[in-house]
Amino acid sequence: MTATRFASEAAMSLLSPLPAAPALTAGTNAPAARTARGLALRLFVLCASVLLAQMFVPANAQSLPHGVSLDGLQAVRDTTTGSTLITGALHNRTGRLLNSASVVFTLQDAQGNTVGHASDITYNLADGATWQVRATAAQPFVRFSAYEVEVQ
Fold it and tell me: If both were cysteines, with which of 57, 81, 135, 137 could 86 make a disulfide (CB 3.0 to 4.6 Å apart)?
């Protein structure tokens, strides 16, 4: 079962009505306590399923300009200099010359905190052309994402 399917099924189960609580007898609140625990459990499952679903959405996901695609992203660490080179390919299928195209990457630590940015830019990218992106990051990071892709 995929995590997304699990998350949606868990959320759907929260929409079903709670089972009827047994009638209260004098001097006991046990059924009310069971109902409260049931509500708390359902709320916990809902929150957990929302968080689980969010794990499968790319951080800083953005839409690219029409006709522009970015793929083959990878990061390679240079052990002699300590810097990391982020590479990829940006394709221009806009039907026109792009005066400029730039990519800004967000660099994150293990906790998901932004620790820096790396970027690259090119000029006069012809329609149908592919630009080999090369952004250098001097600071250490654990993961990265394409934060901004801008074309003019």
Answer: 135
pLDDT digits (tens, 9 = 90+) for 74-107: 999 999 999 999 999 999 999 999 999 999 999 9
Q: 37: domain range? A: 3-55
Co-location of 23 and 82 in the same domain:
no
Measured CA to CA in angstroms, residue 1 lies from 4, 5, 51 at distances of: 8, 7, 17
Tokens representing 84? 């990391």
| Rounded Cα–Cα distance for residues 33 and 36 (Å) | 5
Q: Structural domain tally of the chain?
A: 2
pTM, rounded to two decimals: 0.60
